[in-house]
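STRUCTURE:
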């Protein structure tokens, strides 16, 4: 009886999560909160971003998506004039992107879909200044409860301009220093999101 109860306790929330209509409507808008992880790739700094994404469908398979959000606080040690060390703010600042997304449903109901997106992006903050970038991304959508949507994206972001650096090379005391967005250099970026369609 305990085994039956344990199996039931596991299957019940799973079945509730999966339950839904036979077909999911193609709502025009999507609003989602994203957690973004930018993998460090020397000399580009790695960071994490909390962002909001707003998408609008342009047709059965096309959508446009705008993403905006701040990078999480980040610091690095550097030498000071007295021979000791100091903490330098290396927050990347505000991250944004405008992507054109083409998607393809994996099921007839529209519950899951794969997508390919590309477009301009940027980073703008006190540490590095404003840096234009370009991003390409493969995405996966999972819809549930009619309006809820889970998203995972994996992509690559390329810097189109060399930024300033918040630390002079002579002041570096750790590896991967000085951090800098350098033209022609890129990094892998991934994001996980949860939101609503309407």
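SEQUENCE:
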């Amino acid at each position: 009886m305990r085994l039956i109860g344990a199996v039931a306790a596991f299957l019940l929330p799973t079945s509730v999560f999966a339950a839904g209509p036979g077909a999911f409507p193609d709502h025009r808008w999507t609003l989602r909160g994203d957690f973004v992880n930018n993998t460090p790739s020397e000399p580009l700094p790695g960071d994490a971003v909390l962002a909001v994404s707003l998408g609008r469908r342009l047709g059965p398979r096309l959508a446009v998506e705008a993403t905006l959000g701040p990078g999480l606080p980040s610091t690095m040690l550097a030498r000071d004039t007295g021979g000791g060390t100091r903490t330098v703010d290396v927050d990347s600042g505000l991250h944004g992107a405008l992507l054109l997304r083409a998607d393809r449903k994996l099921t007839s109901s529209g519950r899951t879909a794969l997508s390919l997106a590309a477009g301009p992006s940027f980073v703008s903050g006190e540490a590095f200044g404003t840096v234009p970038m370009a991003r390409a991304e493969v995405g996966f959508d999972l819809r549930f409860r009619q309006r809820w949507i889970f998203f995972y994206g994996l992509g690559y972001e390329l810097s189109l301009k060399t930024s300033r650096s918040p630390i002079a090379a002579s002041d570096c005391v750790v590896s991967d220093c000085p951090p800098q967005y350098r033209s022609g250099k890129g990094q892998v970026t991934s994001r996980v999101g949860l939101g609503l369609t309407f």
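REMARK: The helical segments are 2-18.
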